[in-house]
Every structure is written in structure tokens, then in C-alpha cells.
Amino acid sequence: MDNIYLAIWDVAGEGELTKNLFQVYSPEGGLYPYVGKMIKRPEPSKKQMLSISSGGSLTLKVELNQFYKITSSVGKVAYSAFVPIYTVVDGKVALKGMKQLDSNDLSST
């Protein structure tokens, strides 16, 4: 299977969120609300893309308390977003379609 290409802002690739990408739960199971920015972005350039191979993974650090109204400790965290998927052919970026991406449970420190 081919690699998929995602815009860096659709996976918090720079540690900055510009839309709600995570489900952040309290230990009791309540969902903390997203309070960060909501920014509409243009189509990304090739420099603004991350390539992920089939079955691959990403390791990123995000300060969740900057983007979610966390009032106590954090329980479960998961990435969950409906995002555009791109192809890159001869250096040109083209929209391939939209896809729901969900992670396994993530660790929080």
C-alpha cells in the first residue's frame, strides 16, 4: 500500500493545534472541551506534508492543557479526526479524499 500524505496541521505536527484533533478524557470518563483556535487552512504545499507508510506511526508532543479545558487529571487520550488525504506526484500535491483517522489510546504525561 502507498504512503498517505497529511497536512502537518491535521496531525499537530508542529505541536500546535488549529482544530480539535484529540479526545481528552478525565479519569472518570468525562470529555474535556477543546478551547483552542479553529483556523481554516488553504491546501498545503509539499513542505507542509507528512508522509506515513501503511501501518506506520507518528510520535508527537502536544501540550494538551494549552488547547483543552483540563480541570483535573487526564485519563484516556486519543487522536480522532476526519481529515483530507493527499497524494504527491512529481512534487505536486493533490487531494485524494477525506478519511476518518483514529489512534489507539495515547499516553499523556
Task: Describe the protein.
With 109 residues, the protein is mainly β. It has one domain. The protein contains no helices and five strands. Strands 2-4-5 form a three-stranded antiparallel β-sheet, with no helix packed on it. A hairpin with a 2-residue loop joins strand 4 and strand 5 (92-102). The radius of gyration is 15 Å and the shape is elongated. The mean pLDDT is 87.
Provide the descriptors you would attach to this structure in a database record.
109 residues, 32% strand, mainly beta, two-stranded antiparallel sheet
Which bin fits the share of residues in helices? Answer: under 10%
Low-confidence stretches: none
The gross shape turns out to be elongated
String of helices and strands:
EEEEE
Radius of gyration: 15 Å
> Domains counted in the coordinates: how many?
1
